[in-house]
Design brief:
This protein is α+β, with helices and mostly antiparallel strands and 302 residues long. It is 25% helix and 25% strand. The protein has helices at residues 2-14, 21-36, 51-77, 190-198, 285-296, and strands at 116-118, 121-126, 131-135, 140-143, 146-149, 159-165, 169-170, 204-205, 209-213, 216-224, 240-244, 252-253, 260-268, 271-279, 299-300. β2 and β3 form a beta hairpin. α1 packs antiparallel against α2 (21-36) and α2 runs antiparallel to α3 (51-77). The protein is globular and about 45 Å long. Mean pLDDT is 76; it is low at 10-23, 33-87 and 96-108.
Length: 302
Amino acid sequence: MSTDRDTTRIVRSWLRSDEHESADRVVGTVLDRLDTTPQRRATGWPARRTTTMNRFLTFGLGAAAVVVLLFFGSRLLGSPSGTGGPGPEPTPTPEPTATAEPSVQPSVEPSPTPVGLLPEGPHIFSDTPAITVTIPAPDWYGYEGFIVKNDFSDAPDGAGMIGPYAGDKYVPEDPCQWSTTMPDAPITTVDELVAALGSQASREASAPVDVTVDGYAGKSITLHVPDDAVFGDCDQGQFCTLTEDTVAICHRYSQDPGQIDELWILDVDGVPMVIDAAYYEGTPAEHVEEMRAIIESATFGE
């Protein structure tokens, strides 16, 4: 069957490259079987074969071999990346599912003992005794034991509050010569403390006003430092309002002549506690009102 052999040579010549070896073997096997397999007759019927039929059959077998070649070649060799027919679709990698972050709830706890610029809201003003205050407006700065507006508390227009003074209180008779005019015994009640402060030499004092903060009753009294006071002439250069626990150190002294001290004196479980809101004639009235609001917002205890 020379025509079959010619077809074989053509196909094998087309598949000479190494990458088509597998397809070559498939085609060879198919053609070899075509050469050696005897023609079978249908049972009971004699076969009638003519030259035209043999040629047609030979041509058809060769064409079948080419079809087999193309089929198995495409299956075995595949298409290079970017050429030929499409290869198998890659399995898409599933995108990871984003996990929703838990929402963060704003804390309602007061911030620690104030240091630096204070945002509006609750802040711990004192640890001993425990006092929390609410800052009602911007530009208040906090430090341990005192809070000041615009980070400035001196004359001519500063504002700040300091305290609390919660131990035994000693009030000198003369705030300039304080080291030699201290009483022998401490003051232990709100009324005694108000009376002693109101009678200090060279100071102007207002009439006391009843106040209540967080359920604790007390009194408020306003004192004024003389505008012509010379602090350099005073003991240790200090114009002293009061001291606590000891008479050797003045715990609350004024910053400048003309200072106004609005003292809030509360009876906290039998002990007089003092918070001093200090300002000047030039201090904006709204800053003074903010200071009062801070004191009035105070809550005691953990």
